[in-house]
Input
Amino acid sequence: METFLSGADRPLYEVKANLFKGLAHPVRVRVLELLLPGDPVSVSELISETGLEASHMSQHLSVLRKHHLVVAERRASQVFYRLAYPEVADLLRVARILLAQVLETTHEQLVSTMRLPALSAPSA
Output
């Protein structure tokens, strides 16, 4: 039987995992990157930049709000989004640095593998 724990009673690793769930889609990462300069961005601009339909953008923005990564502000008939915390930008920058390091290591492993002698086929 699974027990429901309130936010304050959940272990920190679970809270962290849920934060990363908010980042776990390429569109959401792209939206956060579009918000990096810091100025609020309208939903229509986000739709234009990503090419998503409004309903899909709405779903992704809902997830980002749920995980406290963005905040919304209504101005007349438009809604604008910005990063909820400046640390979200730091997290994205560190993720990009880490990704570059991983890709460099993977590339080095690929090059090393390509230098191995060819394997001969088993004789029949």
User: Anything to note?
Assistant: Strands lie at 41-42, 70-75, 78-83.
